[in-house]
Amino acid sequence: MNRPVLQSPRPASASASPASAAPASGASAKSAAGMFAAYDTPDFFCELMNRTDTLPPSLQTVRDRLAGFDLAELRHRTNTAEAQLYRLGITFTVYSDREAIDRILPFDMIPRVLTATEWEHIDRGVQQRVKALNLFLRDIYHERHVLRDGIIPADLVLNNPNYCEAMVGVRVPGDVYVHINGTDLIRDRSGRFMVLEDNARTPSGVSYVIENRHMMLRLMPDLASGMPLRSVEEYGLRLHQTLCEVAPEGVSDPQVVLFSPGIYNSAYFEHVFLAREMGVPLVEGRDLIVENHRVYMRTVAGLRPVHSIYRRLNDEFLDPLAFNPDSMLGVPGLVEAYRRGNVTLANALGTGVADDKAVYAYMPRLIRYYLGEDPILDSVQTHICAEEAGLAYTLANMDKLVIKPVGESGGYGLLIGSQATQTELDEFRAKLLEDPSNYISQPVIDLSVSPTLCPSGVEARHVDLRPFALTGHNTWVLPGGLSRVALRKGSLVVNSSQGGGSKDTWVMAR
Amino acid sequence: MTQTGTRFPAMLANLNMLLSRYGESMMWLARYMERIENLARLLEVTEAFVRNPDGSPGWDSILQINSDEERYAAIYPLPATEENILAFYITESANPTSIRAMAHMVRENARSARPLISTEMWMQLNVFTRSMMELSTPDIRRNGLSGLCNRLKQDCQTHFGVTEGTLYRDQAWLFYLLGKYLERSDQITRLIDIRYHTLLPGGETSGSQLDITQWGSVLRSAAAYHAFRRLQPVTTTPANVVGFLLKNEGFPRSLMLNLRQVDNTLNALSTHYNLRHQCSPLQERIINLRATLEDQTAEDIISRGLHEYMTYIQDQLAALQAEVSVTFWPAAPVMTREETLTPQ
Fold first, then answer.
1. For chain B, which end, N or C, has fewer CB atoms within 10 Å of the first or last residue's CB respectively?
2. With an 8 Å Cβ cutoff, is A328 touching chain B?
3. For residue A214, with 0-12 CB atoms within 10 Å meaning exposed, 13-18 middle and 19 or more buried, which class applies?
4. In chain B, which residue's Cα lies nearest the Cα of A290?
5. Residues 98..127 of B with a Cβ closer than 8 Å to A: which?
6. Do B19 and A287 touch (CB under 8 A)?
7. Does residue A311 contact residue A287 with C-beta atoms inside 8 Å?
8. Are A110 and A103 in contact (CB under 8 A)?
9. Closest C-alpha among A252, A230, A275, A240 to residue A58
10. With the CA atoms of A486, A492, A494 and A498 taken in that order, what torsion angle do they form, in degrees rounded to the nearest 10?
11. What is the pLDDT along chain A (510 residues), one digit of tens a residue?
């Protein structure tokens, strides 16, 4: 099966010489460089090699083992893995004009490895950030100290399209708003981790973290054997536990469900995966009904009460009575039942205001404000085009910046100035001037790279990392995460909808 | 209750709480898979008839058996040709009874029930339905029809085997079985009916050599030939064959056996899952239906009108399916809530 590269044809091989890249089985597989013979020493921070300090022992082992692999063998295993993913239906669905096409997320067999020290830093940093997000949300929907103290412009919060009026004054169990959070991390040239964005609405991708590990252990046992890998297996149990912890008060044995838009949603596989891992029903809107402000599901034996809903729909589709009246996916009356505390929604309504790209710029200040601590994870310097100075700076430096619309996700609608043509720059300038408050800009970060199997050999490709955090009584971070890789040479866009693939993420226990 | 203790009772509670939609999907998943297998059998036996030297019964008989005449005429010109009939039943997406359309329905139901079915089941269905939806005309050139039918039968049987070996036995399984046995009951009546429709007015007499040969084909297409031989070593009469297909207690596709299985399945739902109230009217229907079968010999049925009786059975089964739907997945939920029955 061909690797489905969505955007570009075969990347041009600038670095690998034909001789070294040829998958000749007679080639000296045992040589020190082996598979990495043609690996171009990149100018970026490499997750596996040329770090500034000496290679940690765990990485050294992975590297040595990988060097012993034959390129043809690795390619063969990749094909096997991708065929299995396709058969297993570990796919996302792309809708063209006429038909639904199931695509796999391309899988790279070379893992991305994090040392125990690196992970400890990420774990603490993510916990801190989630804590601040939850405090911020509680505050803006109640007392609004943060606005009165002038930490963040009230306009940015209260007139934010994701700010949810229905949440004002509503208490949620444990004051938890963001139960499931995905934090997108990148590393700069020096290897420093930075938060690129928070995903506090319905972050996706965790199923790939677990399925990638299964695939890796099946197909690369010789690489993984004896490695002190931290397990990613307990995510489903932890998620179920979390949803039980935040169920409405007084419910001793809560019924948890996963609420999916249904089989036509591109992330349906993940919804199925998580429902199965938790051992709870996957429901669609038509399976739920609200009576007397309580939520029930329709079973063959009649209506049964529901207490905690892990919803994988955006706010506006949840309830046609409260939001979009045209939505066929939602449940009439759900929001009112929620406001009365009869059911828990995870994540809460209105969390989108916290992971907004403009609010992001204030996160370091919010962390200091709520926790009295310095941020453990750095943020990327961000210019807010809604502010005069930010707009002026952005317009003057378009060719050096990444400019992003604040409302979009999935890597859509952004401009990478250094890679844009003059026409593209001019067009974007017009859009920017038309609606400045819709944009922010950031300097281009030299994302770290990881050796990746490409058509012409093992080459450096940019990666990011999305760890997942669950918050009930406490916050727990899954030791691993989704490592997305931009398969196009030089590309910085790792989104699956834009030609990205993924890698297994190994967190070392020691 | 401790935090670690919350999980187990919640799972037990789930066992008694099959979502209506899941029940519906499981039932139709089984029905469509059975239907695909039976269509393969029908195509096979029709081809055998068409090929016989007499050549009298044509391809259009299969349209009558499935009551598809109108649908066919809406898509293709009359008179029906072999090529068009095969296209109609195999690749025509506008025909809901084609292999392609049914494979699509199987896929939708399997996707919907995917949280419940085993990974092995899903994987096989994923590959099977995708390949069926991609079938093209060259795949069904006439000399390849029996190859295609064999493949269809094998893939369906693989599905039934994987399901038997891997699907967790709870309500979902019972609704699956309900669909499977109902569909088999219906399909055996259609297979028998094929003889009715292939008889030309004033054609060959019942019990003639051609008649015997064609009943032999019907038996073979139902995988019943050798079992029938073991029971009836000498005489192949229409009454013997009809009696075997309708009333035999050991043949897995006989009407009698499948009606008994429907009854058993409803009984299991009723007693193990506290659904007595919902199941008893359904069981009553089955008991009445079984009585009409037990009270008549095959000779009685034939002399009173085989086709009429097959139609009666089909109508009764359709009514039962409709009642199952109204009972377990009503369009508007009108059931009374039984909160007190929720296990805590």
1. C
2. no
3. middle
4. B333
5. 108, 111-112, 114-115, 119, 122-123, 126-127
6. yes
7. no
8. no
9. A230
10. -90
11. 333 333 333 333 333 333 333 333 434 434 446 788 778 767 889 998 866 678 888 889 999 999 889 899 999 999 999 999 998 988 887 776 667 778 888 999 999 999 999 999 999 999 999 999 999 999 999 999 999 999 999 988 999 889 999 999 999 999 999 999 999 999 998 899 999 999 999 999 999 999 999 999 999 999 999 999 999 999 999 999 999 999 999 998 999 999 999 998 989 999 999 999 999 999 999 999 999 999 999 999 999 999 999 999 999 999 999 888 888 889 999 999 999 999 999 999 999 999 988 899 999 999 999 999 999 999 999 998 888 899 999 999 999 999 988 766 556 788 888 888 999 999 999 999 998 988 999 998 889 999 999 998 999 999 999 999 999 999 999 999 999 999 988 888 787 767 789 999 999 998
Q: Is A394 helix (H, G, I), strand (E, B) or coil?
A: helix
Nearest CB to A298 within list B14, B20, B175? B20
Whether residues B119 and A88 touch (CB distance < 8 A) is answered with yes
Question: What six digits make up the tokens of B292?
Answer: 């009409």
Is-contact B268 B173, C-beta < 8 A? no
The pTM for the full model equals 0.88
CA A500/CA B54 separation, integer angstroms: 63
Distance of CA A110 to the CA centre of its chain: 20
Interface of A with B in 263-302 (CB under 8 A): 263, 268, 272, 275-276, 279-284, 286-287, 289, 291, 296-302
Q: Which helix (H) or strand (E) holds A469?
A: strand A468-471
Quote the CA–CA distance of A66 and A37 in Å, as a whole number.
12
- The residue assigned the tokens 């039934």 is B160
- Spatial contact of A493 and A142, defined as CB atoms under 8 Å apart: no
